[in-house]
């Protein structure tokens, strides 16, 4: 089984603004504040997925597999609700700076796309949860794997898009990002996502 956690942001990057006006600083701050809210529900989601993985690996009966599948579905539903809320917050964010507004729209599209793909992964897992017998489970495994693989591949692409966009935002907001803190590539089974912009300082 290949399953992805999400493309949710993994952490903060310390930013230092060198030369921009206070209006740009405040807008970068507002943008970063919304994005960085994802850290809490991202951590919760990854904890639940780690627990699911352990249960799935130790499953020795159909009931165990269904219990693990239900846990995965619940985790996906919770994080999708959180992502939807974040998309709403981004769309409600008033940014007079046209470049930042464009970045905001692009970021909202990416995380909305991640929610859609996580829903596909959840639908795939529902096939497993609904199996009434081991024969039913065997009959849906191919469909499950196809949906899960497609969602995983699309999440990897979104993760790469996010990494590029966040780097662009950091650059535009005057971030000085240490090389060792750059976004790591997504790993199979746990697409990690990009580093998120932190609130810049007006120094």
How is this structure best described in words?
The protein is mainly alpha-helical and 203 residues long. The chain is built from 5 helices and 2 strands. The protein has a two-stranded parallel ribbon. The longest helix is centred in the last third of the chain and has 39 residues, at 134-172. The termini are far apart. Mean pLDDT is 78; it is low at 1-19 and 176-203.
Give short descriptive properties of this protein.
single chain; 203 residues; mainly alpha; two-stranded parallel sheet; 5 helices; disordered C terminus
How would the blueprint of this fold be written?
Layout: E1 12-13, H1 22-36, H2 38-57, H3 62-92, H4 98-129, H5 134-172, E2 196-197
Parallel strand pairs: 1-2
Helix pairs in contact: 2-3, 3-4, 4-5
In short:
It is built from 5 helices and 2 strands, in the order βαααααβ. It is mainly alpha-helical.
Gross morphology: elongated
Strand content: under 5%
Helix-strand category: mainly alpha
Low-confidence stretches: 1-19, 176-203
Rounded to the nearest angstrom, the distance between the terminal CA atoms is 49 Å
């Amino acid at each position: 089984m290949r399953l992805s956690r999400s493309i949710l942001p993994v952490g903060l990057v310390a930013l230092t603004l060198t030369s921009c006006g206070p209006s740009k600083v405040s807008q970068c701050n507002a943008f970063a504040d919304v994005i960085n809210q994802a850290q809490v529900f991202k951590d919760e989601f990854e904890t639940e997925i780690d627990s699911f993985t352990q249960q799935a690996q130790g499953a020795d009966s159909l009931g165990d597999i269904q219990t693990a599948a239900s846990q995965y579905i619940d985790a996906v539903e919770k994080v999708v609700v959180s992502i939807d809320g974040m998309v709403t917050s981004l769309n409600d964010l008033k940014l007079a700076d046209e470049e930042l507004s464009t970045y905001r729209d692009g970021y909202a599209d990416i995380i909305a796309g991640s929610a859609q793909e996580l829903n596909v992964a959840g639908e795939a897992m529902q096939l497993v949860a609904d199996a009434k017998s081991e024969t039913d489970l065997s009959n849906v495994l191919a469909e499950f794997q196809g949906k899960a693989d497609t969602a995983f591949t699309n999440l990897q692409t979104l993760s790469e898009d996010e990494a590029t966009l966040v780097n662009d935002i950091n650059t535009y907001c005057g971030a000085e990002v240490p090389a060792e803190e750059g976004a790591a590539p997504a790993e199979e089974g746990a697409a990690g996502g990009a580093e998120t912009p932190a609130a810049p300082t007006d120094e």
